[in-house]
Write a structure and sequence with these properties.
Layout lengths: L7 H9 L29 E4 L4 H7 L1 H11 L3 E4 L12 H10 L3 E5 L3 H18 L3 E4 L11 H19 L4 E5 L7 E2 L2 E5 H8 L5 E6 H10 L5 H7 L6 E4 L1 E4 L6 E4 L8 H8 L6 E4 L13 H14 L4
Parallel strand pairs: 1-2, 1-12, 2-3, 4-5, 5-8, 8-9, 9-12
Antiparallel strand pairs: 6-7, 10-11
């Protein structure tokens, strides 16, 4: 694959439009030796969903992005595709080498349900090459027209089949939620769809990645549950979290996505309440990070500040 040489000044200019917003000194990760007791997310469990910085992956490629993520202190990477226009023809084997070269661990990957349906063994092959312990989807289990009891029962059966295929390869299959999974069934307003998904899927085959932001949006649009309770009742089913922050707003969702630490979700309470410190991986995601102004360091500046905010969480 092509390996363009990009120096530090060129990189900062590309990601932020300025070399003043994010300095080399500012990219240094906090010292683990200085970590206070009560850290809620250990450094080795802090990761990033690459969709967050998709503009950088697209324009600069995996090599440069991985180098910068490692410099910031991130340890784990969750994929949202395996291609980059900046590195035409790059293979999953080459991506794995770039992970290893930068001391990063591939922890999971978001794959579409249609891709699993078309060729699940190919997706599992890729996961094995990348060394992923988890592979799953961020797709809603059904289309909006099928948010019914029967629709979710059928989806759960499909998820069990995907989970069994993954288990046979030594992998764990997972589902990442958005807000609609917390709505009530269209044909039975007494049934919350997420409850149905949990009850109909085999806990040994189907795992869950709670997107904390979207769970709180779900609480806003379909009240009557606490996201924390789901984790407490199903501790072993939640190996992954999306650490996504939101600020309360008058929007339909009740929150707007913001950098981690700049919002109103009480993550100290969340992580302190679920316990099992160090068992879970927390992956920072911010859907709108590519829109971060150049003067604030662009998406890389958001990545730096969000890493620091997760690192500083104390119970």
């Amino acid at each position: 694959m092509a390996r363009p040489e990009i120096n530090r000044r060129q990189f900062l200019s590309a990601v932020a439009g300025t070399t003043m917003a994010v300095t080399a000194a500012g990219l240094a990760a906090p010292s683990v030796a200085n970590a206070a007791k009560g850290m809620l997310v250990p450094p080795g469990k802090i990761g990033i969903q690459l969709f967050t910085i998709r503009n950088l992956v697209s324009s600069l490629g995996f090599r440069v992005v991985f180098e910068e993520l490692a410099r910031l202190g991130y340890k784990n990477v969750e994929f949202a595709g395996y291609t980059s226009p900046a590195e035409p023809g790059i293979t999953v084997q080459q991506i794995r080498q770039l992970l290893d070269d930068n001391g990063l661990t591939g922890i999971g990957s978001h794959v579409s349900l249609n891709a699993f349906r078309a060729n699940i063994e190919l997706e599992l092959d890729r996961a094995e090459i990348l060394g992923l312990p988890f592979i799953g989807t961020a797709n809603e289990p059904v289309t909006a027209a099928n948010r019914t009891v029967a629709g979710y029962q059928a989806a759960a059966a499909e998820f069990n089949a995907f989970g069994a295929a993954a288990q046979a390869r030594g992998l764990r299959w997972y589902h990442h939620n958005h807000q609609n999974e917390f709505r009530f069934a269209a044909d039975d307003p007494s049934v919350r769809l997420y409850d149905l998904l949990l009850s109909e899927t085999d806990p040994k085959l189907v795992f869950l990645e709670m997107d904390i932001y979207w769970a709180y949006v779900g609480q806003h649009i379909a009240p009557g549950f606490d996201p924390i309770d789901y984790v407490l009742a199903n501790r072993l089913r939640y190996p992954l979290f999306h650490a996504k922050d939101g600020r309360r707003s008058t929007s339909a969702n009740g929150y707007d996505i913001v950098e981690f630490g700049a919002g109103d979700i009480d993550f100290e309470h969340f992580y302190s309440s679920i316990g099992s410190r160090g068992r879970h991986y927390s992956l920072w995601e911010q859907d709108n990070a590519p829109n971060t102004p150049a003067e604030a360091g662009g998406a890389l500046g958001a990545a730096e500040r969000s890493y620091d905010a997760i690192y500083e969480l104390r119970g």
